[in-house]
Amino acid sequence: MGGKVVFKAYDPDQLTFLPYKLEELVPAGHPVRIVKQVVDAVDVKPLNRKYQGGGASSFHPRLMLKLLVYGYLTNTYSSRKLEDQAAQNVHFMWLLGMKKPDHNTINRFRSEKLSGVLKQIFSQIVLLLQQEGIVSLKEAVFTDGTKIESVANKYTFVWGKSIKNSKEKMKAQLDELWGYAQSIAAEELKDTAPLEYSEINPEKVKETISKINAALEDKEDVAGKVKQKLNYAKKHWPENLARYDEQEKLLAGRNSMSKTDPDATFMRMKEDHMLNGQLKPAYNLQISTQEQFILNYTLHQASTDYQTLPSHIEQYEALYKELPKAIVADAGYGSDENYGVLQQKGIEAYIKYNTFDKEQKEGIKAFSNDSLHYNEADNYLTCPMGQRMHHVGDGQRITSSGFVQLISRYQAQNCEGCPMRGVCHQNPGNRIVEINHSLRKHKQAAKERLNTEQGIKYRKRRPADVEPVFAQLKHNHGFRRFLLKGMSKTEVEIGLLSIAHNLRKWKA
Fold first, then answer.
1. Half-sphere exposure of residue 260, counting CA atoms within 13 Å on the CB side?
2. What's the rounded Cα separation, in Å, for the pair 256 and 162?
3. pLDDT attached to residue 99
4. Is 396 in a helix, a strand, or coil?
5. CA-CA distance, 214 to 195, in Å (whole number)?
């Protein structure tokens, strides 16, 4: 038989001679101490300027910043949960000196006070990392993007093309009504011109409907369907057009937006394990990393990565007054505009173009435009059979970002009877090709850089530097969807997330 079972003494109501000091309950080296140390070291004057004098006293912005940063570091994103932690969690209580902001105060600080100034706080923390020799702002950075879902419901979409189609349909119906009115009341409408498409606005449509109604008022043989349509048009069309105009202003050239979060654009998300794309309102997050620390973050409404790089680089320069010596990115960023921007700024572009990987395995595809030899001195191409393709004109192509590409056209002299005709091109007549010489040069330079010893090292390092950061944020720390609406507020969330990530990794 075993000995007598003995339990440790347990009395939750037992009083201690002296109360516990919270300081004793926070271990040395605990992440909460790192948050306190770093936030105490940054300049919060930009935050102080957000406060107006008078009225009741406010919680100190440094205290509120500590609360939010440590909250995001511990995966506590909700303002109500942060309120609970401030009242219950020993680490939060120590960090805040037993102060207990409520959820409304927390949310107002995050939404209003941090908006527009958090990037200055973030950059100060990155500079502290640089001072400790952990990162270098002058060395190469690794850039990539991911899409994060908006808090808006996925069924709240507004499509730019749908608005255009509705306005065109309205114009067609108005033309039909105008034609009908002229057929039975030509005299009344003889001094009035029909509407142009550019005039489809609430005032003009209302005025035109009134004129049609006035012209048909005394006519007894007006069809009932026409009267019905005119009544409907008078009641609904001006109001609908006003709504379309407002939505087009909010779209600002985008293809889509959410009704409940107009800053969010519908983007294809790859969230399930099968990577099946779903269209959801989202923002495109871009980050540049080094040693898996986030050095720069920007949020975008454009779903394609190549459109985001110029403004991403501009912000890096604005934050640190210097630029990295190189940017390493995947083929999603390999555009004529991006190569040109980086060249102009003196940044080495270790950026793939869309066919780079395929070319590495299979070489340049025979008979493609890239396979044709170009004689720059005399400005002609040589076809696969050795025939000159003469320059026959130039043109322009405007990308979705508004960048103007210069395109040169070249035409073969005689494709008739050529033994390669079937595989070279299928169109009737002599082959014509369009060449973007700027992009062609950039691609050649990028290919040479990427295949240097340094380029190969960067290519191997890129997926191990920037991509794990997204895995940390989205999968390990569960941030897959924003809590707030609007670009300025979602930027604050990403800023807090980036600061928390850097602090978590700094002292890990």
1. 11
2. 9
3. 94
4. strand
5. 17
Rounded Cα–Cα distance for residues 11 and 17 (Å): 15
Among 66, 86, 65, 69, residue whose Cα is nearest residue 77: 69
Percent of the chain that is helix, strand, coil (3-state, to 5): 50, 15, 35
Q: What is the Cα–Cα distance from 487 to 263, expressed in whole angstroms?
A: 6
What residue has token string 């409404």?
301
Contact 385, 319 (CB under 8 A): no
Neighbours of 157 (CB within 10 A): 18
Is the predicted pLDDT of residue 183 greater than 80, yes or no?
A: no
Q: CA 164, 168, 169: angle at the middle one, nearest 5?
A: 115
More confident residue, 178 or 438: 438
How far apart CA 457 and CA 451 sit, in angstroms, is: 9
Is the C-alpha dihedral spanning 471, 477, 481, 487 positive or negative?
Answer: negative
- Sort strands 293-300 and 373-375 into parallel, antiparallel or unpaired: unpaired
Confidence bin at 84 (pLDDT 50/70/90):
very high
Cite the DSSP H helix spans in 58-150.
61-73, 79-88, 90-95, 103-108, 118-131
CB atoms within 10 A of CB 115: 17
**Residues 170 and 237: beta-carbon distance below 8 Å:** yes
Ranges 133-137, 166-170, 200-204, 215-219: which has the least confidence: 215-219
**Quick one: average pLDDT of 285-290?**
98
pLDDT score, position 181: 74
pLDDT tens digit sequence for 228-276:
888 888 888 888 988 999 999 999 889 999 999 999 999 988 765 555 6
**185 contacts: CB under 8 Å, gap ≥ 6:** 215, 216, 219
Q: State residue 194's pLDDT score.
A: 59
Task: Report whether 151 contacts 259 (CB < 8 A).
Answer: no
Rounded to the nearest angstrom, the gap between the alpha carbon of residue 20 and the centroid of all alpha carbons in its chain is: 49
pTM for this prediction:
0.88
Please give the Cα distance from 464 to 459 (Å, whole number): 10
Lowest mean pLDDT across 78-87, 213-222, 315-324: 213-222
Residue-wise pLDDT tens digits, 91-133: 999 999 999 999 999 999 999 999 999 999 999 999 999 999 9
Of the candidates 309, 304, 357, 316, the one whose C-alpha atom is nearest the C-alpha of residue 337 is 309
The side-by-side arrangement of strands in the sheet containing 373-375 is 373-375, 380-382, 388-398, 404-412, 432-435
Is the CB of residue 158 less than 8 Å from the CB of residue 251?
A: yes
Which residues face 393 on adjacent strands? 409
Strands 141-149 and 432-435: unpaired
How crowded is the C-beta side of 414, counted as CA atoms within 13 Å? 1
